[in-house]
Write a structure and sequence with these properties.
By secondary structure, the chain is an alpha+beta fold. The chain has one helix spanning 51-61, and strands spanning 14-20, 25-31. The protein has one domain. The chain contains one helix and two strands, in the order ββα. The protein is globular.
């Protein structure tokens, strides 16, 4: 499933994908909204079964 088709994507201001080939790191950063200014969130380090599960988790955590 693509990011734009995911129901939780709605109302997010930005979703960025990163990949560092040397280390194998793959990351997703989601910003839900900045209306009330900047806010800190959490970082989760986890192996997901697939990219859809990782995307679902990051969109949920960013709210």
């Amino acid at each position: 499933m693509g990011v734009f088709e995911h129901g939780a994507y709605r109302d997010h201001e930005e979703v960025s994908f990163f990949h560092d080939e040397a280390s194998g790191l793959r990351a997703i950063v989601a910003i839900h909204r900045l209306v009330q200014g900047r806010a800190g969130g959490g970082i989760r380090i986890r192996d997901y079964p697939d990219e859809t599960e990782a995307l679902r988790d990051v969109l949920r955590l960013s709210r």
